[in-house]
């Protein structure tokens, strides 16, 4: 186990979250076209950091830093990691961050087209999940699970918990997509509200299944509890964001409380998707496909 590699992956994940926050600050402050050219800013590497330029160029600077971190992480994984699929995930992260940079440039060159802007926001979420997954897969906790795996438990119930977690992943991602479309004025609030209900219902369902069947497995239970708590917080943030946007609609420029709530809502959404993915990884690692399969392997059907 390479603890330094894990810490570097954690730092890269934290930096990526900061990048998502910086992107949300650009949108929330209506600073999307404050810099009209790309890849330079007003033909310079470092323009005056005033007004909307501070948010837009600051976002580009953090993006460049995250891109550099991703390259270093992928190279480090390739040299130090024994699992081939983890190495490939690191390479995929490089591809994702390059694509993300190109999409960011296209949003400027083509003056914020809806499809490109939404794709840029959604790829950011997927890239964040890749980096968070790499941080988890290089962690001491995951290493201990690999060294002492224990028996795989049967995935009882219908639908299987594995499938239910994947469905929750997809629902969270679709909700983030609709949120991005809403922020870029390409979608109304009703689909986003409906998506919030679906996500909340799925997460509660996952929590109920874990709590009743796998409460003795803390490596699954703690992630389910964290996911459930974060979704509840996100519902509060979403309601607050909608309310403050309504009462400040006539403001000449975005007010600080609205910006802070919106950015917190976006950041929480990214964290929810990442936690949901880690929960799925844990469930797939600890549970078998069915009770019948577990019985053939001689694993007890009860926790």
Structural domain count: 2
Mean pLDDT: 91
Number of strands: 0
**Helix/strand/pairing class, anyone?**
mainly alpha
Give a verbal description of the structure.
The protein is an all-alpha fold and 303 residues long. The protein has 2 domains: 1-148, no CATH class; 152-303. 76% of the residues lie in helices and 0% in strands.
What brief labels describe this structure?
single chain, 303 residues, mainly alpha, globular
Question: What is shown here, in short?
Answer:
The chain is mainly alpha-helical.
How is this fold's topology laid out?
Blueprint (H helix, E strand, L loop, with lengths): L2 H26 L22 H30 L3 H26 L4 H24 L2 H8 L13 H23 L5 H25 L4 H30 L8 H31 L4 H6 L7
